[in-house]
Design goal:
Elements (H helix, E strand, L loop, with lengths): L6 H14 L11 H9 L5 H8 L46 H24 L1 H40 L6 H29 L2 H10 L6 H6 L12 H12 L3 H4 E2 L7 E2 L3 E8 L5 E7 L3 H22 L6 H14 L2 H14 L9 E2 L3 E4 L3 E5 L4 E2 L3 H6 L4 H19 L1 E3 L7 E5 L10 E5 L5 E3 L2 H15 L4 H15 L6 H9 L22 H14 L3 H11 L2 H19 L8 H29 L3 H47 L1 H8 L7
Parallel strand pairs: 5-11
Antiparallel strand pairs: 1-3, 2-3, 3-4, 4-7, 6-7, 8-10, 9-12, 10-11
Length: about 675
């Protein structure tokens, strides 16, 4: 049967077939015959319509003009005639790979980020300093966190051992725990030391403060000793740039023959030798490290954060006293005008002692915020025994003069140099214009750190020292604890720790077997007392916590005096003196007696102007004068005896050296150089 389809009917059939066809099948260009097969099916009049359809078999790829293909909406792969993906583990061996362009883009982003970071670090000063400050802070906090963890685990092991033994540990177990604690101290101190050394700047100053407090565990104080000398110099180009920024003039505008290599490098500054262009005098030029100013505020903040963190974890072991010292002293030390003013005041305080002291202060030519120019001193470190031998300088006299200088500062002037370590003291043969009563001058350097003492603290501290040197009695013991409370703000149970901190010796209340009558009866060397004190720190329960409680409680001014006392003892020990362990106490006692006598006279003078002459005033004056004369005579007589003994000891060393190796060895032994002979 023939069927005639008009062109209009064919189009309608094609349109109806398109509407009912599967959408996936229409995603490709389609002919009219294909559309009809989809609409009518393969079995309905296939032969009849082929001929009729042949009249119009052109492609319908232009069908988008009257119908837009709709993308498939089903997620079933079988709807498009495709096989479903195999289930996981069955035929699927590799995961689909992400587009290759994604990895390339990530590498590109990384390269761009690194490039931008490098350019900012090299050419943006603020960004570079921020990165360096973050690294320094991270280095410090890493060491602090590791130390906290180390101490936590060590203390936990000790607590478990104590609990297992019900508090009754065997000697072997005690020795093991002591060894573990010492090892923990050593590890922790070394971590902090490395962080401070690498960070430099005020971090080195922090380590120097820690090393000067000798009541801390020995492992900590000894670990910090190298920080006195291990400081990194600033390149001379940076020094020149800093001077131009601050003063508008460079090195060549200010100086002649400026030596590029510094003759001394400290934590905050370095010193160069030069010739002042204006005066033509040889000078020492002290310049601050160029980067210190940018890092100081951030570094101080980092130190405070670390200290607060330690306090949070170990409330008994707080270092607030250290943070207070850093926060107060650091800004002052960074201002060299302040240092020049301190030097001028110190010179004025000693002006009346011309011809009676060997102390010499280099003249300051001019000072700015970060640059100080002073007289150049050609000398050596005060503990250079070979230098002393070469110039025939008596090391015992040097030690005694140091004691007189600092006792004058503390007990009479009430204004003292708080950082007199070996690097801040030079000794030289007596200069032609010097008024020294000896054959040497002691030159005091670095006046950035001075402390003023209130009069009541100064006089009460003098009373406390005299009570320690007075033969023991019930009255003396009461006086010791009375003045310890006045100067240290402590209760009676903390007294032994304060006495040990002040004298550097095991307290007379802490060792029942060996109790000397007074400090002047003590014959044991200081080194032996230090060993006893360290043993007590390791052996006795709660000693470390009590020491930190003491450091937290006592006034900050007294803490600085204790630091000065520790530095003085270290100087005396490095000089290998032969006058015995108590010679310095005799000098100190004389200045204490003088301070009390002066204070009493001032008080009596005030009473006289208020109330006039009276019997009470007369008896008070007589009592004070007799006390002063008693101590002066007693100490002076003891000094004479000790000096004679010291000379005889030197003679004995000479004969011992002569017997060992002849005259050269004898000379070495007498000069205290026997170990290097």
């Amino acid at each position: 049967m023939g069927i005639a389809l008009s062109q209009r009917g064919l189009r309608l059939a094609a349109c109806n077939a398109w509407r009912s066809a599967p959408l996936a099948a229409l995603s490709r260009p389609t002919t009219a015959a294909q559309l009809l097969r989809l609409r009518l099916g393969p079995e309905r009049g296939r032969a009849s319509i082929v001929g009729a359809a042949s009249a119009w078999t052109r492609s319908l790829s232009h069908s988008a003009t009257w119908a837009t293909p709709v993308p498939p909406t089903t997620t079933d792969p079988t709807a498009a005639g495709q096989a479903p993906p195999p289930p996981p583990g069955k035929g699927q061996t590799t995961k689909p790979k992400p587009p290759a362009g994604r990895g390339v883009r990530r590498l590109g982003y990384l390269a761009v980020g690194l490039t931008i970071g490098y350019l900012l670090y090299e050419f943006n000063t603020t960004f570079r300093y921020s990165v360096i400050a973050l690294i320094r802070y991270s280095r410090l906090m890493k060491a602090v966190v590791l130390d906290v963890w180390d101490y936590k685990t060590t203390f936990a092991r000790e607590d478990r051992a104590q609990a297992a033994a019900d508090g009754d540990l065997s000697p072997e177990e005690r020795a093991r725990l002591r060894s573990e604690r010492k090892a923990c101290h050593s590890r922790s101190a070394q971590r902090i030391y490395e962080a401070l050394r690498k960070n430099s700047g005020i971090y080195v100053k922090l380590g120097q403060h820690l090393g000067a407090v000798h009541v801390l565990p020995k492992e900590w104080t000894q670990a910090m000793i190298p920080l006195q000398d291990q400081c990194f110099p600033t390149p001379v180009e940076d020094v020149d740039a800093m001077l131009r920024k601050d003063l508008g003039m460079g090195i060549d505008d200010l100086f002649i023959d400026f030596e590029p290599n510094p003759i001394g490098v400290a934590s905050l500054a370095q010193v160069h030798r030069a010739v002042d262009r204006r005066s033509g005098r040889p000078v020492a030029v002290k310049v601050q490290h160029a980067a210190l100013e940018e890092f100081a505020a951030v570094d101080l903040a980092a130190v405070n954060v670390a200290i607060r963190f330690v306090k949070h974890v170990f409330p008994d072991f707080e270092f607030d006293w250290l943070a207070d010292e850093m926060n107060e002293m650091q800004p002052l030390e960074m201002n060299f005008r302040h240092e020049a003013a301190n030097s001028l005041r110190c010179r004025h305080d000693f002006q009346h002692l011309t011809g009676k002291t060997s102390m010499y202060l280099p003249e300051v030519l001019w000072a700015e915020q970060r640059c100080l120019v002073m007289e150049y001193i050609d000398g050596s470190r005060v503990d250079d025994l070979a230098y002393l031998k070469k110039h025939k300088i008596d090391r015992n006299q040097v030690s005694q003069e140091l004691a007189r200088i600092f006792s004058q500062m503390v007990y009479i002037n009430g204004f003292f140099h708080a950082d007199p370590h070996h690097g801040n003291l030079l000794i030289r043969p007596k200069a032609q214009n010097s008024s020294s009563p000896f054959n040497f001058d002691l030159c005091l350097l670095d006046h950035g750190q001075y402390v003023a003492i209130p009069s009541d603290l100064r006089v009460n501290y003098a009373h406390f020292w005299l009570s320690l040197m007075t033969p023991v009695s019930e009255k003396t013991i009461r006086e010791r604890k009375k003045y310890a409370r006045l100067v240290g703000n402590i209760e009676e149970d903390m007294y032994p720790y304060l006495e040990s901190a002040i004298t550097g010796r095991i307290s007379m209340d802490m060792d029942e077997e060996e109790t000397p009558n007074s400090l002047l009866d003590e014959q044991q060397p200081l080194s032996r007392h230090q060993k006893k004190l360290q043993k007590a720190i390791l052996d006795r329960e709660g000693v470390v916590a009590d020491i930190f409680e003491l450091l937290r409680t006592i006034p900050r001014r007294l803490l600085m005096i204790l630091k000065l006392s520790d530095l003085q003892r270290a100087l005396d020990n490095s000089l290998a003196t032969t006058h015995g362990p108590n010679r310095i106490y005799l000098i100190l006692g004389q200045y204490c007696a003088q301070a009390i006598w002066q204070s009493d006279r001032e008080n009596l003078s005030d009473d006289y102007h208020k109330h006039g002459l009276s019997l009470h005033l007369f008896t008070g004056f007589a009592r004070s004068w007799l006390s002063y004369m008693y101590y002066s005579t007693m100490f002076g007589t003891a000094e004479l005896g000790m000096d004679i003994k010291a000379r005889l000891t030197k003679v004995g060393l000479w004969f011992r050296g002569l017997a060992k190796g002849g005259f050269a060895t004898a000379s070495q032994e007498m000069a205290g150089l026997g170990a290097t002979a």
